[in-house]
Every structure is written in structure tokens, then in C-alpha cells.
Amino acid sequence: MDEKSSRKKYSREGLKWAKVARFLALPFRPSRLKVYLAVRRFEDIPIEKLIDDGVQGILLDADGTMGPHHTRLFPESSVQTALKMAERGLKTAIYTNSSEDRFHQFQGIPVVGEARPKPEARGFRQAMKNYLRLDDPGKVCMVGDNFITDGGAVDAGMRFIHVHPVSGNENFFLRASRYLAYRCARFYFPEAFKYN
Ligand SMILES: [Mg+2]
Predict the structure, then answer these.
(1) Separation CA 190–CA 184 (nearest Å)
(2) What's the gap in Å between 49 CA and the centre of ligand 1?
(3) Residue 172 predicted with pLDDT over 50
(4) What separation in Å is there between the alpha carbon of 35 and the centre of ligand 1?
(5) 116-136: pLDDT as tens digits
(6) Is residue 149 within 8 Å of residue 123, measured between CB atoms?
(7) Quick one: how far is CA 149 from the chain centroid?
(8) What is the 170 CA–ligand 1 centroid distance (Å)?
(9) What does the DSSP assignment read for 36-55?
(10) pLDDT band of 7, cuts 50, 70, 90
């Protein structure tokens, strides 16, 4: 498969049925909104706690989580946090639905390329097996700002860390749907969002 058809096969942004289905189901399926942790900023993630809790691998969303939507320059504090996760021995990879190549700051951290798009459970499993080299989703954390896409990790048996979205210039539909899903999660699990 050439590069172009590979990109086409794994085109991951935009409105996909898996996202719509998950969005529609969320208000009625609170278990799919469960968070392991919720933090204000990506840098607030307590790395040592993750390790103490038996986490071995971590998948990182990029846009809205480690920097503004579609940024080409991530804040140094985010980069350092990601590098520290890897240094502390967590298997770490960036798993984004964006296909752009703009993660050169994250030296040594692989970017998931060949995987189904979030929120498909199969995509999370592919990312775990092929990029973290792990087999047990219970020992993997997805970190992201969006319950619809990143939160699909819960359906794959992973833990989910929700990061309050870094504001950017994402489109209205993305922002509105992400906010509604977030409100659902807060409605069902208010205790998880005590940082506010
Ligand atoms: Mg995001």
C-alpha cells in the first residue's frame, strides 16, 4: 500500500459513524463515561500515582490535551511531562486522529499511525499492541480532552484520564459535542471533577 492510500485508509478526522454512535449513547450509558482521573492541565497528571496503581502504558491525545487544536508548537511544559512519563518507564505513544506530522518535539515517543480511528475499540487495541507493546488494556491509560473520541478507551477496557480542553480554534460542532459529553460525565460522576 502506498503512502497516499495508507493515509486514506486511516483518515481519522471528521464525522465518523463510530463517533456519532458513541455520542448518542453516552447520556444513557454512564459506565462509558467513567474516568480514572480528571485534571485541569496535562501537566497535573500524577505520574507516580499512575505507576503505583499499576499503569504500564499511556496513550496521549494531542489536540486540546497537550496544546491547542492543530498547534505546530506544543508548550514546553507539555513536552516535558510527556517525556517524563516515558523516562519513568511508562510505555508512551501519541494517539491522535489528526494525520499531520507535527510531533517532532516529542523525541523518542512514537506516534500511532496504523490504527483504526478513535473511538473504535479496535483502534485502541491496535495502538496498545503495536505501539506500546502491551497486552492488558487494564494497565493502559488514555489521556485526552474528549469523551466521545478519547473516552472510547473505556470501551476497550482501558482507564481514561480526562484533561480539561486547552482552548483553540476548533469548529463549533466539535466544541459543542465535546462539551455536551463532558456535561454528561460531570452529571453522572461529579466527584471525579473536584478540581473545579
Ligand atoms: Mg483532543
Answers:
(1) 10
(2) 23
(3) yes
(4) 16
(5) 999 999 999 999 999 999 999
(6) no
(7) 7
(8) 10
(9) SEEESSGGG--HHHHHHTT-
(10) very low
190 C-alpha to center of ligand 1: Å? Answer: 21
Instruction: Give the Å distance between the CA of 105 and the centre of ligand 1.
Output: 18
- CA gap 121, 96 in Å, rounded: 14
Q: How far is the CA of 144 from the centre of ligand 1 (A)?
A: 6
- Measured CA to CA, the distance from residue 31 to residue 3 in angstroms comes to 38
Q: Which three cell numbers stand for residue 4?
A: 497516499
Listed residue (51, 54, 64) closest to 164, CA to CA:
64
Is the pLDDT at 58 greater than 50, yes or no? yes
Ligand 1 centroid to Cα of residue 123, in Å, is 16
Is domain 36-193 given the CATH code 3.40.50.1000 in the classification? Answer: yes
Q: In what order do the strands lie in the sheet with 159-163?
A: 37-39, 159-163, 140-144, 57-60, 91-94
Cα gap 181→184, rounded to integer Å: 5
